[in-house]
Automatic annotation (TrEMBL):
One of its GO terms (molecular function) is DNA binding. Residues 23-88 form the RNA polymerase sigma-70 region domain. GO terms for biological process: DNA-templated transcription initiation. The lineage of its organism: Bacteria, Bacillati, Bacillota, Clostridia, Eubacteriales. Gene3D superfamilies: 1.10.1740.10, Winged helix-like DNA-binding domain superfamily/Winged helix DNA-binding domain (1.10.10.10). Belongs to the sigma-70 factor family. ECF subfamily. This is RNA polymerase sigma factor. The keyword Transcription regulation applies. Keywords: Sigma factor, Transcription, Transcription regulation. InterPro entries: RNA_pol_sigma-70-like (IPR039425), RNA_pol_sigma-70_dom (IPR014284), RNA_pol_sigma70_r2 (IPR007627), RNA_pol_sigma70_r4_t2 (IPR013249), RNA_pol_sigma_r2 (IPR013325), RNA_pol_sigma_r3/r4-like (IPR013324), WH-like_DNA-bd_sf (IPR036388).
Length: 190
């Protein structure tokens, strides 16, 4: 028959190492689970659980047997977690995490800006390779946000011609940007 918590505590107070091991084994999983759910990090939870049991051992002679031992040790765990959240260790770790997240976000932003600039330069280069009549239509439409009728007036062309040049120029541009592969073939693969 398994000894009660009070019997184990009595043995521990007499110096029994075995009784201490039995008591720790009995409550370890429960305390670790509580701390892990509260903290959310396995390694930190492991360390805090060890510290809770050290605190328990240092103050076990103060346990008066009023109420359940389980509640007493859980109270130690709750207080220890609260102390951890107030500690410099937690605050430094939180600051480091925020700094890492911020650096990561900044790196992402820098990369996004660089990527956009590279893409813009590539598009500009490919537009310059188009025939003048297609180049003019694309530039006026996409860089100057002009309507087809306005482009027709400026280029002294029919609206249908502008529409055709815009479509042809856009298709050539897409084909060149995608490495010469036909857009329709590429779409079918996806």
């Amino acid at each position: 028959m398994m000894p009660t918590d009070e019997e184990l505590i009595e043995e521990i107070n007499k110096g029994s190492q075995a009784a201490m091991e039995v008591l720790v084994k009995k409550y370890y999983k429960s305390i670790f689970s509580y701390i892990y759910r509260k903290v959310g990090d396995y390694h930190i939870s492991y360390d805090l659980t060890q510290e809770v049991f050290i605190k328990m051992m240092k103050s076990i002679n103060k346990y008066e047997g009023r109420g359940k031992f389980n509640n007493w040790i859980l109270k130690i765990a709750v207080n220890h977690c609260n102390d951890y959240y107030k500690s410099k260790t937690f605050k430094n770790r939180t600051r480091e995490t925020k700094l890492e997240d911020s650096m990561s976000e900044n790196n992402d932003k820098v990369w996004d800006l660089l990527k956009k600039k590279i893409e813009r330069n590539l598009v500009k280069k490919e537009i310059l390779r188009l025939p003048d009549y297609q180049k003019d239509v694309l530039i006026l439409r996409y860089y100057h946000d002009m309507k087809l009728k306005e482009i027709a007036d400026i280029t002294e062309s029919k609206e249908s011609t502008v529409k055709s040049r815009l479509r042809q120029g856009t298709c050539k541009l897409k084909k060149n940007l995608l490495g010469g592969e036909d857009i329709e073939k590429r779409k079918r693969r996806f």
